[in-house]
Amino acid sequence: MWGSFVIYWEQPIHKIAAYFGPKIAFYFAWLGHYSTFLWGPALLGLGIAIFQKVVDQQDHSILFFYVFIMSLWSSLLMKFWKRTENELRFRWGLSEFEDVEVNRPSFIGTPRTNPISNLRELHYPRWKRAFKYMITTSIIFCMMCLVVVLMVIMFVIKDSVAKNDPVWQQVANITYSLVLVGFNSAFVKFALVMNNWENHKTESDYDDMLIGKVFVFQFINSYLSLFYVSFFKNNFLLFGMKEKCNPSCFEELHQAQRAYMMSKVVTNNLKNVVVPWIQLRKNALMAEWNAMEETRVAAADGLSEAERKKMNQSRKETEAAAKREVTRIEAKMKMESLMLPYDRDANFEDFNDLVLQYGFMMLFGVSFTLSPLLALIDNLLAIRSSAFKLCRTLQRPMYTVSGSIGTWFSILQVVSLFSVLSGFAILAFTMKGMDPWFANKEEKYWFIVCIEHFVMILRLILSMGISDTSDLIRLQMQRLNYIVHRPNGRELFCIRPRDFFADQQKQDKAQAGVEAEEQVDLDVEEAIIKSEEKLHVPATAVIPHKTRAEKLAKLNKTGGSSSTTPATA
Q1: Distant-in-sequence, close-in-space partners of 2: CB < 8 Å, separation ≥ 6
Q2: What are the phi and psi torsion angles at 492 (to 5°)?
Q3: 80-102, pLDDT tens digit by residue?
Q4: I want to staple 79 with a disulfide (CB 3.0 to 4.6 A). Which of 162, 306, 466, 478 is the partner?
Q5: CB-CB contact of 393 with 357 (8 Å)
Q6: SS3 breakdown of the chain: % helix, strand, coil, rounded to 5?
Q7: pTM
């Protein structure tokens, strides 16, 4: 049900992590968390947009409250996501994942003895990677310069051809938005090639460097033109020509923001909904045709020439009969064999689209208050389309593990911080709706600066006042730490954090009306007990639960070969 387009509000995050891997599960967890938080800004932006339509004024002073609320909202979004992420890390046993991460299969290095652990390992010299960093950084810088040149050309064409025609101005905005989307997608492919060439040791290093490359380029490619319109266009000479906003810089920013958000929703749905559906229908038709052809050929092998001619004349009847003979399992196997393999970088591209969307909504959302509503619609469709692709149109991806969303969280925090400065700067320098509040511009600027500093202080208070971990997780982490490092100095093994949530999971299932009994894998439990006997570790110290005695009793009833004594149990 989760993998279809049926409305399904609750995401089975733990099942996703168990089947596809925590890396993909973290993407769906963040997408669900972000979409849930978007309901408030979406309703707020919709109300303000209706008010702007009623008063027939885009740059109304009410936008001051929108910027103030959104600045605090972004801080709450980040803090509560950190709590959710830490809970998922603990539930999935990934709290120390980065400390035990293994090398990437494609990592190339020379064997050496580690000077710290005295173990054999693969080593890649730092100077070689530093040299590669210099080359890739130079290429990225050249590509960013190319983006700036294209932006200048776009503004020259727009001001010369569509200067007094609002229809052509809107066409120019949509065209430039599509060009930005195309450049972003092309650079992601190019960045993947450069990142593979740099030969990173672990998946975390690989992902962090790839995210850094893409974000630096896309920040310039996606946001530079809007920053130019917001703060520089009326005060900048372009090739000796005085630039002037038409009719105003705020209105031009509004048109550009609206064009991007609407084109993003359309292109994302074409890519994530229409294309997977077409691929699914193609796979089903090909599997059905191949099965019918195989059945028809097999039926015709033992016939005479006359009978073959007769069969060819009644081909439609034969195909219909063959179709009925194809079983559901055979059809499913045929269809799955025709599915495209899952691209290991698809998860990165999905995250990249979300971060770009978040940046547009936060940095320039004050110019188009329907941005959160469009982002919410896009995200809800993305949840359904991404699940549909994973379950219906692509082969099962390789199980990948990640301890968090990685560098994406740091980038989201940076964007959130810049959004406060950008939002209040647009109020001060671009928007004219607040001018009647003040006697002169100096008063307006000082007021905006004071409010911006006040918001920064409030964000700091929220960041310090809201803990990154909930009380339940903190208690269980302390309990684990006590079990692992007891006062007698004995270090224990086989600690499984998921056992601490057994009671809570039973309560959740009971509330949902689902009757489920605990399924114990006797072979696994017997192997654990045997390993504990070899290590001479008391069983009651390893997993301090009453369920251990019950599990041992089940083993004894089923004739388990464990030699654990009742005293030990």
Answers
A1: 8, 11, 12, 387, 391
A2: -110, 165
A3: 999 999 889 888 888 776 666 67
A4: 466
A5: no
A6: 75, 5, 25
A7: 0.73
